[in-house]
Amino acid sequence: MGELRAAIALLVMGLMLLCGGCAPQGGGAVLPKGIPVVRVRILQACSEARIVATSPLWAKSQADLTPQPVSFPAAPGSILKLVNGGWIAGGVPLGSGELTLTPGRAGTVSVEGRCCRGRYRLVPVGQGLFDVVNDVDVDSYLKGVLPVELYSTWEEEAYKALAIAGRTYAIFESKVTGVRRAYDLNSDERSQMYKGIASETSKSIRAVEATAGVVVAYGPPGQERIFRAYYSSCCGGKTQSSHDAFGDDYLPPLGEFDRGATCSISNKFNWGPVVISKAELSKRFAAWAKRKSEQEGQPRPELRMQGVARIEQAYVNKLGRPVLFYVTDNANLRFMMRAEDVRLAIASEANGGPTVYSGYFNTINEAERIRFIDGHGYGHGVGMCQWCAQRQALLGWRHEDIVIANFPGTKLIRAY
Ligand SMILES: [Zn+2]
């Protein structure tokens, strides 16, 4: 990691005067008032993190009453570690417990190369490990989501439709899922892809600002509620419900819908055959079961799977899209798995090798390998379809109509 010099120096009173006593108090310019803040876990279980700052920032540990002004070197930065429960960077202690780092100005601080708006919260998770969480207002967050989720050439109305879906999803997660933990969202495909300031584009900024405050809601008049407004890349013509895909309670706007050939402009609308050896599938299912068990904190039944001998459809939804598969192992034990889990297991550790793009396929089981045929779509296929939205935008639809068509029975409301 290179030698660290006096990496951090507490600044003297001069800085306080220079800044006019501008220590952030958790609001102000960093986290604007009125716009909901979402907590995005950008790094998980780190043993160290490189902090680079081009201007002073403010650090506050759990024990500090007020934030302390701190200077990190711009290059090569400083390595921050958690040693015996205490934070240390470049030999300088920074207290214990949760540590908050607030940039003096947006864009001046990066953690492990991730430069985000808002502030960074470093949360101990045990044994010298910590998560890095970015507390950021939902609109700044979305500006760094849309360009990663959508192609740069796509229509402005498709961007705006996704801004509304993404905003609803993020706020819902912060109100419901995040209540039980120190973060609301992951920064990868487990939630929405998010890469911070570096990924922002003029198109993403315009789409977020043009729709600021607007979310999609469902319920009787006067009692509309936001919901987990899922979206995915390409539905392949038929969606699946969030109930079938994830085990959520059934909600009509997240049900199964026939979208015809709307997203047939995607090259994943039809795919296959994809051929993968049973030996390779066995490795991938084992790796998936291990990781999924760790994530869920309890052993998955698939941990007992002795290789993969056959995969076949077990149940299709009312539109004919498979939602459950049987996976039979070499001991002739049969495991029933969600199509969504089968997709992720097959894609697990594919390392650029052949894989399936959705759980919407059929199979031909051969002696040594499985052929995945009649594939349709890309992603989980629940809720809004990005390629359907792009097609509708190309046909001249307004973003409001795109959102409601993708979440039938809903209406748009203002959340802030
Ligand atoms: Zn679609």
How would you characterize the overall build of this protein?
This protein has 416 residues and is of the alpha+beta class. The chain has three domains: 9-137, no CATH class; 144-240 and 382-414, no CATH class; 274-373, no CATH class. Helices cover 23% and strands 28% of the residues. It has ten helices and 25 strands. An eight-stranded mixed β-sheet has the order 1-5-4-9-12-13-2-14. Strand 22 (362-365) and strand 23 form a beta hairpin. Helix 4 packs across helix 5. It is globular. The two termini are 45 Å apart. Residues 1-28 have low confidence and may be disordered. Bound molecules: zinc ion. Residues 234-235, 259, 262-263, 385, 387-388 line the site of zinc ion.
Q: How many separate domains make up the residues?
A: 3
Q: Strand sequence of the main sheet, in spatial order?
A: 1-5-4-9-12-13-2-14
Strand content: 25-35%
Calculate Rg over CA atoms.
24 Å
Helix content: 10-25%
Number of strands: 25
The major sheet is characterized as: 8 strands, mixed
Distance between the termini: 45 Å
Bound molecules: zinc ion
Task: Assign the structural class, choosing from mainly alpha, mainly beta, alpha/beta, alpha+beta, or little secondary structure.
Answer: alpha+beta
Q: Helical element count?
A: 10
Helices and strands, with pairings:
Elements: E1 9-10, H1 13-18, E2 37-46, E3 48-53, E4 57-61, E5 68-71, E6 78-83, E7 86-89, E8 92-96, E9 99-103, E10 109-111, E11 114-115, E12 119-126, E13 129-137, H2 138-143, H3 146-149, H4 156-175, E14 185-186, H5 202-210, E15 214-218, E16 225-226, E17 231-232, H6 242-246, E18 274-277, H7 278-296, E19 310-316, E20 322-328, E21 334-338, H8 339-347, E22 362-365, E23 369-373, E24 384-385, H9 386-394, H10 399-406, E25 411-414
Parallel strand pairs: 2-14, 17-24
Antiparallel strand pairs: 1-5, 2-13, 3-6, 3-10, 4-5, 4-9, 6-7, 7-8, 9-12, 10-11, 12-13, 15-16, 15-25, 18-23, 19-20, 20-21, 22-23
The protein binds zinc ion.
